[in-house]
Structures are given as structure tokens and as C-alpha cells.
Design brief:
- By secondary structure, this protein is an alpha/beta fold.
- The protein is built from seven helices and nine strands, in the order H-H-E-E-H-E-H-H-E-H-E-E-E-E-E-H.
- The longest helix has 31 residues, at 212-242.
- The radius of gyration is 20 Å and the shape is elongated.
Length: 250
């Protein structure tokens, strides 16, 4: 009975997670190029802050995401709700003793390195502590009267034959199947005095099909490598967008 209760709770959590995922993916950032005058102002700022946000849930989707022991729901329901997705960080840690890191903090470091090297900026101040909210009012309270770069993980996941809400076309959502690592991140430059977004870019990273067992073997070595690759790839892509180039295509 206790196991059945726990199972039902996990399935309810999957439904809640699915709603959160839909909302997050539906709000994928639009592309905003930076104006040349704003680029000059950026170089003349006494200080430019760079922040990132707390990581969203790392989604793991697959028919094996939930155990098949519930008398009430049964194995078909376990497979269905598992395909919608569960908390991947928790599953990987509890089931396989694997811990993974959100790629965005590393991406932020690489993007700022490009700013320093290419634009000769010496006024950057990266903030190591992740922020909890990306609302304009919260950012304005913390960093008044200046410019702020911020980087946000919109979504990241392992898709293992489950369903994924695609955002390749921002105007609608669709379902498709596959087995891969997927990462969606947005970056922007804001002026806090009037809450104006001066630049905004987005990067989507998706691996070719990879079997889950291959990803998690050797303490998740390949999974960690792919997440690092996501950080490197999207840092370069966002930097290119900041320079006026088009986003990469998967």
C-alpha cells in the first residue's frame, strides 16, 4: 500500500512537471539584435554585471522513469507518465549515483571571456551566486542604473524514447520521439534604468540519438561530456548572435 501511494505521488508529480515544461517551452525567448549605439554604451559603462539563474528541473523522460509496481495504475500508466518526464537529477543520483551540472554557469564564463578578449571589456563583474528570479523588478532592485547580462536555462533533459515538447518553431508546440540530450538556453543584455532588453539570443543543443545505457555507463561520463559540449556550443552560438550572426541549426 505504501509503495502504491508513493507511485501515485510520483505520477502526480509527472503531471505537474509536464505543465511546467509546457509553460517554460512556450515562453522561449525571441531574438533581439544589439544596436551599435548600445554596444558603444556597453564599453563605456563603469560596471556591467553578469548573472545566471537557479537551474530548472533536469527532465528525464522514458518508459522506465517510473517503477512498475502500482496496483492502481499498472505498468502501462507507469510507462506513459514516465514518458512525460520525471526529475532527472534525483533519478540519476538515487538510481545510478550520478550527479550532473547545469551547463549555463560554464556557458556564462565562456561568453564573458569572449567579451573580454574580443571587445577588450574590463568592466565585467560576474556574479557566482545563482539568482532565483529573472523578473525585471528583482534585477533592478539588485543592480540599479546599469547594464546586466543574464543567462537562463529554459530547459534541459534526457529524452529516452519519451515525448518532448519541441520549440524549434516558437509559434507552436509539437511532439516527437527520440533518444538524446537536449538543452535550451537564453541570454540577454538589459538596461536596468528603463528595463529595456538591448540584446537577446537563444541556443538549442541536441545530440544525435544515443542509448540511455551508453550515456550513464562509467558514472555518466558520456552524459557529462555532452552537457559540457552543450555549454561550449551554446556559448559560441550566443557569442555569434551577439555579433550579429544567425543562430546555429541542429
Amino acid at each position: 500500500m505504501e509503495k502504491e501511494i508513493q507511485m501515485n505521488r510520483k505520477m502526480l508529480a509527472s503531471i505537474v512537471l509536464m505543465v511546467v515544461v509546457i509553460v517554460s517551452y512556450g515562453c522561449a525567448p525571441a531574438l533581439i539584435p544589439i544596436d551599435k549605439e548600445d554596444l558603444v554604451r556597453l564599453k563605456n559603462q563603469p560596471e556591467v554585471v553578469a548573472v545566471h539563474y537557479e537551474s530548472p528541473i533536469f527532465v528525464y523522460s522514458g518508459s522506465d522513469a517510473l517503477p512498475c509496481f502500482s496496483l492502481l495504475w499498472g505498468c502501462p500508466a507507469s510507462a506513459f507518465f514516465g514518458a512525460l518526464g520525471v526529475d532527472g537529477r534525483r533519478l540519476l543520483k538515487e538510481r545510478y549515483k550520478i550527479e550532473v551540472e547545469d551547463p549555463t554557469p560554464a556557458l556564462k564564463t565562456k561568453f564573458l571571456a569572449n567579451l573580454t578578449l574580443e571587445l577588450k571589456l574590463s568592466n565585467l563583474r560576474p556574479i557566482d551566486q545563482a539568482l532565483t528570479s529573472d523578473g525585471f523588478n528583482d534585477i533592478k532592485k539588485a543592480y540599479k542604473g546599469g547594464m546586466v547580462f543574464d543567462f537562463k536555462t529554459v530547459a534541459w533533459r534526457i529524452n529516452d524514447g519519451g515525448l518532448i515538447f519541441s520549440t524549434h518553431d516558437w509559434w507552436y508546440l509539437r511532439f516527437h520521439r527520440g533518444k538524446y540530450v537536449w538543452y535550451l538556453v537564453g541570454g540577454r543584455l538589459m538596461r536596468t534604468e528603463d528595463s529595456k532588453i538591448l540584446w537577446q539570443g537563444v541556443c538549442e543543443f541536441k545530440t544525435p540519438d544515443i542509448e540511455r545505457d551508453t550515456l550513464i555507463e562509467n558514472d555518466g561520463a558520456l552524459l557529462k561530456t555532452k552537457l559540457q559540449e552543450a555549454a561550449d556550443t551554446c556559448a559560441a552560438d550566443l557569442w555569434g548572435q551577439f555579433q550579429g550572426k544567425s543562430p546555429r541549426q541542429n
